[in-house]
Each structure stands twice: as structure tokens, then as C-alpha cells.
Amino acid sequence: MLSRVVGIIVAVCSLFSPSAFPESPPGAPDSVHGQAGDGSLYAIQAGLQGEIYPVFANYASLQRQDQRRFAAVRVTVSNPTAASLRPTVSVQIPGWSDQEIQVAELEPGATRTLMFAPSFLPRFYENREIVAATANVAVADAAGRITYQTTVPVRLRSAEDIFWGDDFQNASFIASWVTPHDSLVETILARAKTYTPDRRLPGYEDWKTAGEQEVETHREARAIFIALQRSGLSYVKSSLTLGDHGSLSERVRMPRVSLGNGSANCIDAAVLYASLFENLGMEAEVIVVPGHAYAGVRVAAASDSFLLIDAALTGRSTFEAAVASAQRGLTRHKASSVIQIKIPQARAAGIYPMPSLGQ
């Protein structure tokens, strides 16, 4: 039986609100203050209370500087002098990132915050444990003379760590784990097509009626389920992560890691299924409920119905049982506690796949 999502709220992730990313209070240990030779004042903060999450750093680095609401390093510049100032500020995390340079135009008495998200090197997205690093900050005047420089200690989180935030306000960032173009995702799809009657995985086809497409989507999802099951994928919890924000953060395996290890918990498997569906041009979603997660796919391009799968059952049940389990699971939760992350909406908000670990 196909599942219809009724009364599920869409989580509105605070993508463009600074409240989505907690800042350190003034004078916090991870906040560095200084004064340049031209009289300008600086307050420097790194990441979320000194910790930089790759998922947010990647998101911010893909945004225009004036549109960022999150930064790997935040530099607040104040001009207490009677003259206009034009300092050039550069930020780099040696060994981990390129250097990013921004210029601050400051009238007397003005304050401006510069949001730095330098492009990170591949090893940043291959890192799977919390590590210490240093952010180098330098300020030059209009003549190019260095007027202030300092270093800020930072901790780089694992590329598999997500910071959900209070009330899962950052849930839409789980779309960064949806990697449709990963080579191992492509391999699973190549296997899955052998489990369809016509050996095809066409995704949505315009010439089909909504009812015909719904049946086709069911067939394709079942083939994907079987391909994953026969690849050896099975449930292993493994969500522990280290660092601050322990109750608000979690380890989530990238699809290539799940496929390589043959292990996935519910959220790991949900982003894996979403990757497979998105690859086919289908509208995928990840649904998060207290203590669990499901995968979903819109049954037809113009339909309001979604086929939902309890992806955690992939290694130990049938496709039909996994679909029924997802339907039953949702009925046990109030609509207000169900978070529906539609991958196309996340992409429209600028949340793209992180570079895959091991790629």
C-alpha cells in the first residue's frame, strides 16, 4: 500500500536567521579581541562557540559574502576614530583552508561584521574526528601595511557531524548528506534496475497518468530496497560524536560510507535512499520524528502523495513491511513533532551535497 502524508508540517529551518547558529557571549573564551594600529577594534569568533562544522562551512562558502548568516570565522570591526577607515581583513586556517580576503568600509563610529567562510581543502571533508586547528587573522591598512594580526584556536568537527540545533531548527542541512552523484550511489542504481520487470529506472515519466506513475514509483522504490538489501546493508546505530553540543549533535554517515561498510542507522539509511531517488530526478524527502527517521519519495510529479519507507528495516524485512512500518510510525506522532525535509526545497535554499568522504 502506498503511503500518503497527511497533516505533516514542513519544518522551517532558520537558514537566514543568526539564531540558527548560537553565538558566544562577549568575553567568552573563544572570542578574541584586539586593536589595530589605525585605531580600529576587532572581536573575532570562530564557528559555533569555537567549533567549526563542515556542513555549515560548506554551506556558507557557497554563499555570497553579503548573504552569509553563518561563518567559519566572524570578525567584527569597529571604528572609534574620527576618520574613515578601509581595513583589509584576511582569514585562513593553515593546512585546512584557502585564504579569504574582505575589505571593510567604515565611517567614524561605524561597526561591521565580516562573515568568513574560506574554501576548505579536501582533507577537511575527509576528517572523521574532532581535531585542533588555528585560524590566522590579519589586518592591513589602505597602504598594505599589516596593522593587526592574531590567531584563534578552533576545533574542527568531523565531516559526519550535524548540529541539529534547538527544536531541530537546522534539520534542513541534512540535505547536505544527500549525494546523488556519488559513484557508489550510481552502482546501487545499476544493480536496482535488474530487479524491475523491464530493467529500467526511469524516474518520473510525463506521458504516464498519475496512477500509472504511482505504480511505477512503487516498483522502482522496491527495486532500490532489494538492491540495498542484497548489497548487505544492515542496521548499526553508531551515532556517537565527540565535542560540545552533545545533546544537539549527531554523527550521520555519508551514503558512500554506509555502502562501503554495509552499515546504517535510520538517518544514515534515510539520506542514502534520498540520494538514490534524487539521482533519478525524483522528489526525495527525509522525515525526522522523535528518535527515528524515514525516507520518502513523491509518487508522481504532480501528486501530493509520498511513498514512505522505514529505511532502517532494509537489512531485516521486506519492502512491504518497511512501507507499512513507516505509515504506522507516523500515526504515533503528533504533526507538530514531525519534521519533513524536502530535498528540492533544501536545494533551492542553497544547501548542496558536501564533498563525499573518500571521493
Provide an overview of this structure.
This protein is an alpha+beta fold and 359 residues long. Helices cover 23% and strands 24% of the residues. It has eight helices and 17 strands. The protein is elongated. It starts with 30 loop residues before the first strand and ends in an 11-residue tail after the last helix. Mean pLDDT is 89; it is low at 1-29.
What key attributes describe this structure?
Immunoglobulin-like; 2 domains; four-stranded antiparallel β-sheet; alpha+beta; 8 helices
Entry summary:
23% of the residues lie in helices and 24% in strands.
Spell the H/E element sequence: EEEHEEEEHEEEHHEEHEHEEEHEH
Largest sheet strand order: 3-9-8-5-6
Helix content: 10-25%
Overall strand count? 17
Largest sheet: 5 strands, mixed
| Average predicted local confidence, pLDDT | 89
Structural class: alpha+beta
Quickly count the helices.
8
Q: Estimate the global geometry from the Cα principal axes.
A: elongated
Uncertain residue ranges: 1-29
Alpha carbon gap, first and last residue = 38 Å
Cα gyration radius (Å): 23 Å
Tally of domains: 2
Strand content: 15-25%
Layout of secondary structure:
Layout: E1 31-35, E2 41-46, E3 51-52, H1 54-61, E4 73-78, E5 88-92, E6 100-103, E7 111-116, H2 122-126, E8 131-140, E9 146-156, E10 161-163, H3 183-192, H4 210-230, E11 234-235, E12 249-251, H5 255-261, E13 263-264, H6 266-279, E14 284-289, E15 292-298, E16 306-309, H7 319-331, E17 339-342, H8 343-348
Parallel strand pairs: 3-9, 11-13
Antiparallel strand pairs: 1-2, 2-4, 4-7, 5-6, 5-8, 8-9, 10-12, 14-15, 14-17, 15-16
